[in-house]
Amino acid sequence: MIPYNSTTFGIANYIEKYFVNENISMARNYKNNFYLASLIEQAVKYITPESYNLLNYLRTTAASFNEENKPIAWHSPSGFYVQQNYYVNRVKRVKTKLSSMTIFLNIHEPNEIKIDKRRQSQGFPSNYIHSLDAAHCQLSLVKASQKGLKQFCVIHDCYGSPAGELERFIQCVKQTFFDIYSDNNLDILYHQTAEQLSDTSKLPPALDMGGYNITDVLTAPYIFT
Fold it and tell me: pTM here?
């Protein structure tokens, strides 16, 4: 939630949508939903305080690119090349006719000279995390196919296989997760971004890896990404 750049207002909106879908009374009481959202944020800060350090790290990285008016690019763990192209839009107003009516249309064209700094800063944390999730999905399917598994169901970052092959597939998912996060991905990101900047003095150094024993994933009863 936090590395995806969610705000208290955004969390409150998600709570409202959940309450509406579940037909819970007073679902649209924004004051109550905002209060619940603030409690969720406090719980996240208490349980996973490093998530805020990660969010700030990614925001500061984006700010370094904004200073040089450059788009951010990186390779995900699967080798997939990602580039954020958030440019300021130029708006052209077109006058036309529809039957007997005169209408005006706004056409947005990206100005590929000027970076949209707000969108780049807001988009980078979630886009980077999404790229890790996507890499995990792709590499899990590759490993599973190498093990002889051929049938998969994939929806965004959720994926599965026939029940008879599920245990073997889960082991591939766990092993791939272990392979990806045994490396310090933020250190890899740092070196990739440093190569793109003229001035790296404001680029934050990579965060240190925590003390979690990543090998525990291999024997865990469940895995969520």
Answer: 0.82
